[in-house]
Write a structure and sequence with these properties.
single chain; about 120 residues; alpha+beta; elongated
């Protein structure tokens, strides 16, 4: 078990909490923020857009998955066998028949593949 780092800042308003929730990339960060400021949790939630709420729900759903640790939401990714050097950003995860898949945005297009066939792009 690892300890969460103690934040070296103090939030003063629910708006600030909402701002940090928008930027969080892991469920651990969400838990730490809302755990430190439980009295603003509901108000901050109301300040988030539907898209931000959906992203946070996705982080919660996949919080224990190793694939999320390797490829957090928003991470640039590239297929291992890509000859065109196309990169995309992780937008979702799914699991079927024992295999983890990642959905990613490439420009205006949405693509997906097995997580094992992806690498982080630089």
């Amino acid at each position: 078990m690892s300890a969460l780092p103690i934040p070296d800042f103090t939030l003063n308003t629910p708006q600030e909490l909402a701002s940090y929730l928008r930027e969080a990339i892991s469920w651990r960060e969400i838990e730490a923020l809302t755990g430190n400021y439980p009295h603003w949790k509901e108000e901050a939630w109301e300040l988030l857009s539907d898209g931000d709420r959906d992203r946070i729900k996705l982080l919660k759903q996949w919080k224990d998955s190793a694939i999320v640790q390797k490829f957090p939401l928003g991470t640039p990714v590239q297929r291992l066998d890509d000859t065109e050097n196309a990169t995309g950003k992780v937008i979702n995860y799914w699991h079927a028949y024992g295999i983890d898949y990642i959905t990613f945005q490439v420009g205006k297009d949405t693509d997906w593949c097995r997580a094992s066939n992806l690498k982080r792009a630089s």
